[in-house]
Write a structure and sequence with these properties.
The structure is a homodimer. Chain A is α/β, with parallel strands linked by helices. Helices cover about 40% and strands about 15% of the residues of chain A. Chain A is built from 14 helices and 15 strands. Chain A has helices at about 15-25, 40-45, 50-65, 120-130, 145-160, 175-185, 200-210, 225-230, 250-265, 320-330, 340-350, 355-380, 405-415, 450-460, and strands spanning about 65-70, 75, 105, 170, 190-195, 210-220, 220-225, 235-240, 270-275, 300-305, 315-320, 385-390, 395-400, 420, 435-440. In chain A, helix 2 packs across helix 3 (about 50-65).
Amino acid sequence: MLTYTLEKGHGKSLYAELYEHIREDIRAGRLAAGTRLPSKRTLAANLGVSTVTVENAYAQLIAEGYAESKERSGVFVCAIGAALPPVEASAPVYSELRRDKPLLDLSGGGGEDVPFPFSVWAKTMRAVISEQGKDILKPVDFRGAAELREAIAGHLYRVRGLRVSPEQIVVGAGNEYLYGLLVQLLGRERRYAVEDPGYPKITGIYKANDVAVKHIPLDGEGMSVQALQNSGAEIAHISPAHHFPTGIVMPIRRRSELLAWAYAQPGRYIIEDDYDSELRHTGKPVPPLFSLDTQERVLYLSTFSQTIAPSLRIAYVCLPPKLLMCLRERLSFYTCAVPTFEQYTLARFIDSGDYERHLNRLRKRYRDKRALILSQIEESPLHGRCGVVEENAGTHFLLHLQTSKSDAALKRAAAERGLSVRFLSDYQTRREDTGSMIFNYACLDTARVPEALRILAALTEK
Amino acid sequence: MLTYTLEKGHGKSLYAELYEHIREDIRAGRLAAGTRLPSKRTLAANLGVSTVTVENAYAQLIAEGYAESKERSGVFVCAIGAALPPVEASAPVYSELRRDKPLLDLSGGGGEDVPFPFSVWAKTMRAVISEQGKDILKPVDFRGAAELREAIAGHLYRVRGLRVSPEQIVVGAGNEYLYGLLVQLLGRERRYAVEDPGYPKITGIYKANDVAVKHIPLDGEGMSVQALQNSGAEIAHISPAHHFPTGIVMPIRRRSELLAWAYAQPGRYIIEDDYDSELRHTGKPVPPLFSLDTQERVLYLSTFSQTIAPSLRIAYVCLPPKLLMCLRERLSFYTCAVPTFEQYTLARFIDSGDYERHLNRLRKRYRDKRALILSQIEESPLHGRCGVVEENAGTHFLLHLQTSKSDAALKRAAAERGLSVRFLSDYQTRREDTGSMIFNYACLDTARVPEALRILAALTEK
């Protein structure tokens, strides 16, 4: 007869304890396959528990396949195949990569928060909870909530002069998510051209999606059309409004040439990545390629990461009608990856005008910050030994240093002085020395810039 | 001299209007490349506007590459390459696929809401906004917020008896997102085995990710190990806790055989998709394969879609330590795709005990609903001409109909009577007639079931 000591008060029910004892006996082979287990009544009497306890334990064993019930003859131990080892809880060794935090990061990390009217955002969230109630948990169209797509379409028209139907807008959980979706839409077997220099993350995501990536050099106007042509790529991923890190704003001539490239062969597309066009400081933002395209070859992609918060995870892509149909036919089984609540909150934030008010303040803030930093450079010992390359846009410029040192040597020396810097060469496939430092001021504490400039001046002295 | 009629009051600034006029003249070729534009002062006087207006218009043209400024000689029209057609706003033709809504959907759509304590959820959201403030917009670890990963680990231990370190948990924007990520982690070039019958969406997502999918038939205990072996697949995607749509709960013997299959070759993995194990009605949920695995070959995947709401878009995967390292090395450049706010809200909902209280109510609700429907079947004219196949779990069972009609003919006839039904054959690659209807009662209005059963009885009469 099976005999176990069952103890109450371990947070486990008696039946669970009994089940575990028998299970371990079966797994260890102490109860062989074919063995008949005692009747519920007998075992209950033996252990001094109720028959319900035994019944529940047997039911669990049967449910998991450790035992089976044969009508009118009882419960029998099953053959469980290869012996299963006892389960041990092993704590995995997982050591975080530790990075020492620099005193000042000129390349864009850390420092100040990006200004954002959190109280207005919180008020909007609360209003959505109160007014839309249970609807915030309802499913939406695979392209995203109609409310948000309409708000984005209105915003694009007011701020970018871009006319697009809300039907053409597809909302996704960040640019990264949408890049992956676009590969599924346009084809994984194709070659994708990216800008060189450019964001390494874009290349990283394409490679993780097993896409052949061609790095196309830029000239002063953006991606070289000749090099693009020679690469055999069919999809060109570009950021014509404001290229990172060079800051190039693509002139209309090059835009026209790129469209001509796309039109020259069926199946060629341009992914227009408009990641920070809303941060143009002066004048209207440059009109997107999407609005110049007459043959449905441009996909316009943008995000709220730069202007609200990366953790919001909302980006969108505007698709030409034919590609939209394609997406609907082949990929509309996907659920929209952004929670309904965030979509409603953002829609309301845009419709109320709060988003555009925030953008205006943000642009002014960055304009002022940039002007201050440019004057700090003029007053610094670097003055006369450096040049600023910038285009009145975004949150960074290039600081070209006159130096005989290599980029790598400067980076190392700067790091020793607590300064984290990146060079144009860090974003290029060919790591040639450039002397051009990325000066990203979005989160920079300007009070510490003079000291940083003194350090740079000392490092570049002959 | 350029002369345009600029009109105020169109919601456009004067400079923008002037810029557009000149731009259109350049694009139409009326202003040829090399043409010198009038000086700002002259044009301003001619048009009766301020020089600032002209200056802004010129600046915009220069920024976009329509014109260029040459020092001390003025502003000149640039060559813009191939003529760009005028931009027209065309409304894309996008007609929604219309589906007539059936009177009663037995296959799982429409009907009642899944019960959820929305007021508790809303209270939790408000508490997170008030207490965590700006932190709800801060970035989190690529695996998700530590708070949520800890809450999930605690929940898995309490409810599933599964011991896993929060370090091993990776949060993603729904199962669909995680399937795509796992393909990137495990390899796109491999063969993936899925259950047949099974969820068509799983196959759809693997195919959209260009993965070779093998459909492996089930026997009474789940995926056939022999067929899996013969398929040459290296990754087996299974749902051992409760298979959809057959309802099979995989016995321990088959679990052990599948582990042995994985251990027999390096590079073999099991994706354990535990989509609704929390809805087991009686007894403890069956322990997952993940906790039996001693050689780091099982990935445990689960979601909050079934128990909270699909629109929440939060799922997670528990990875063995080696795969976690792999993910960190190769794919940690991805930002966690779930907004920080939803992560904090869910963490608090779990930690407070509200989630487990909800699960208990949900299980009771489904248990009662199932019992009612089973009694409705007994009292219906179908009684004696059908069989119920079910395993005390999930929100559906199979209703096997004794009929000479084909599944397709029954579906058509049912649809004519306003009844939407699906058969086991709808989830199989080989569409053999089964007579087995999926009876999904999660959202079903039970008041209408007797009528539905009368219709089915009439349709299956000889």
